[in-house]
Amino acid sequence: MFKRNLLTSLLLYEQVRTTKRRAQVVAPMVDSIIAMAKSTEPRNAIRAINQVVTDKNASRKIMEVYIKRFASVPSGLTRIVPVGARVGDGASVVDFMLVEGEQVTLEPKKEKKPRSTPKK
């Protein structure tokens, strides 16, 4: 269960602090989900992503931001940076983050004009 939650948090916040083993388990999942989203038709990709990710905003961010950001990057989308050891049990702690890709600017949504009622 921790895999899905950690994957969702990474996709939403782009950086998570976790243990080294958990980061190593989730890193290939990130590559495969984003690669699948790039190569699959959007509605099928959204269905597949929603089966793995626990938040709809994460799947929306994949489809709107990450596909454009990582369009030219085939794999290696995550970076694991060691931070130190956890105080309680000594487990190695890392910063697990997405690599910087191309800058993406989101276009503002068009405002809908209210329909005017015809005058009689």
What is this structure, in a nutshell?
The protein has 4 helices and 3 strands, in the order αβαααββ.
Descriptive overview:
The chain is α+β, with helices and mostly antiparallel strands and 120 residues long. The protein has a single domain, classed as Alpha-Beta Complex (50s Ribosomal Protein L17, Chain: A). It contains four helices and three strands, in the order H-E-H-H-H-E-E. The protein has helices at residues 2-13, 20-39, 42-52, 56-69; strands at residues 15-19, 78-85, 92-98. It has a three-stranded antiparallel beta sheet with strand order 1-3-2.
Observed structural traits:
120 residues, alpha+beta, 50s Ribosomal Protein L17, Chain: A, three-stranded antiparallel beta sheet, 4 helices, 48% helix
